Amino acid sequence: MSDFQELVKRFPKTREYIRDFFVYGFKTRDEFDYKSPRTYDNERRRLESWLGSYVRKDYVSGGSNISLAIDSNLLDTNPLFRVWKTKSFTDNDIVLHFLILDLLQDGAARNVEEITDCLLDEYEVLYDAQTIRRKCNAYAKEGLLEKGKNGKTVVYSLDRALAAWLKDNENVKDALAFYQMADVFGIVGNELSEQFDTGNRTFRVKHSFFVHTLEDEVLLALLDAMEQKRKVRLEIRSVRSRNGNTAVCTPLQVFTSTRSGRRFLCAYVSRNKRFTCFRLDAVKSVRLMEESERYDELRARLDRNRQQVWGVSFQGENGHRSDTLTMTLQIAEPWESYIVNRLKSEGRGGTVTKIAENLYRYETKVFDCNEMLPWIRTFTGRIVAIECTSESVEKRFYHDLQEMYRKYQIENGGEDADGTIYRNT
Q1: CA 238 vs CA 6, 32, 135: distances in Å
Q2: Of 35, 70, 119, 173, which has fewest CB within 10 angstroms of its CB?
Q3: pLDDT at 414
């Protein structure tokens, strides 16, 4: 049996386990039934090694529940960045990493043969030229080395201009500290800050979605595809059912929920001839494909269709292109004028009309009215009537209302002591 290794060769499997522990948590060993017990044990031990101070165990009858307890407003960095710094390597990998970078510190450009000879002369190590070429090409692809030509000869050099500029500009360190906490690809700011031995002593973020860093590898590939206007093949695994499938689509934009922070890829699926949104945390891998000849046309269509999107759905339950929803509310003026302001500011383009004293009508047309229900429920107690061209939406709202009446033992709706109207239909 092979020994346990803290470092990992492939990130996707570890990403899946870290997300499960962080987002869902509270699962015993037996409840992770989609992987073998040995795999679960290895991933749990890695988790405890990387994030030991944030791991919480709750003992229950079926075993111990493992979860991550991280409070973003108390931390100066994202602890999940540690997961990105654990890639496995061979002895040759680590030796060549330091020797090549140290050799090129002088800024001079060298070809493969010169690098091979210098490693032998200065460090007394002998490597095959082909091994050096593969390593240099890999570093050039990652951006660690500059690859150019001296005549017909390919040469490699270490560009230290950025490092020198960062060292001479102290204010940039604060910018890096803020960036690692507040934006996508924060691992970049974290790495640069650590290189210059400067921590984040200034900024704290009250509501930060630390788990997003686990999706950055997928996000980077999607942004690269959008930049090149290319199609992609997505490997997707359902967050709930764990079923896997693939989708060929044209990526157009990334949406972020202002309420939950969840991120979605909005793409055009040619097979279905429609726009579809995929949760980024369900995308396991991205493979770039051929260029999309209709990219600009599809992006223009998306911009038009977004005017009728409430959330991320471009089609209702019954296959309708769009549905109309009308909500009538009783608002006691002038004390509840803030409710009218809410309808106008949060209504996403819907119209607000005063139809009688203390009575207002809100009307909007969107692709999927189901997405509106959580927002609509925030007006419970003031709603007089809901009408929607999608009968399922209307029935669902009144069914939920009946359930509320039942749980709170409210019989036949009626009127509360403060005059608030409840409707029972």
Answers
A1: 28, 15, 37
A2: 35
A3: 47
Residue 353, SS3 per DSSP:
strand
pLDDT digits (tens, 9 = 90+) for 346-401: 998 899 999 999 999 999 999 999 999 999 999 988 999 999 998 889 899 989 88
CB-CB contact of 403 with 395 (8 Å) = no
Q: Side-chain half-sphere of 351: how many Cα atoms within 13 Å?
A: 8
- Cα–Cα distance for residue pair 252/295, rounded to 1 Å: 8
Residues 6+ apart with CB under 8 A from 73: 204, 205, 206, 207, 208
Q: What angle do CA 87, 93, 94 make, to 5 degrees?
A: 80
User: Cβ distance 54 to 63 under 8 Å?
Assistant: no
DSSP H helix total and E strand total for the chain: 13, 15
| Inter-residue contact 289 to 222 (CB < 8 Å) | no
**More confident call, 357 vs 181:** 357
With a CB cutoff of 8 Å and minimum separation 6, the contacts of 309 are: 366, 367
How far apart (Å, rounded) are the C-alpha atoms in residues 65 and 192?
36
Q: What token pair was written down for 278?
A: 């995929």
Query: Which among 375, 318, 317, 370 is positioned nearest to 346, based on CA atoms?
Result: 375
pLDDT band at 211 (very low <50, low <70, confident <90, very high): confident
Q: pLDDT tens digits for 263-315?
A: 999 999 998 888 999 999 889 899 999 999 999 999 999 999 988 899 888 87
Q: Are 377 and 399 in contact (CB under 8 A)?
A: no
Burial degree of 345 (CB within 10 A; 0-12, 13-18, 19+): exposed
C-alpha span between 129 and 116 (Å, rounded) = 6
Residue 99: pLDDT over 80: yes
pLDDT of the residue at 322 = 86
What is the distance between the alpha carbons of residues 76 and 190, in angstroms, rounded to a whole number?
10
The pTM score is 0.76
How far apart CA 174 and CA 172 sit, in angstroms, is: 5
Residue identified by tokens 């089609």 is 315
**Which residues on adjacent β-strands are paired with residue 250?**
268
Element (H, E) at 174: helix 171-182
Instruction: Give the Å distances, CA to CA, from 228 to 78, 231, 288, 359, 412.
Output: 31, 9, 10, 52, 60
Q: What 8-state DSSP symbol labels residue 348?
A: T
Which three-class secondary structure state does DSSP give residue 365? Answer: strand
Q: How confident is the model at residue 340 (pLDDT cuts 50, 70, 90)?
A: very high
Secondary structure class of 216 (helix, strand, coil) = helix
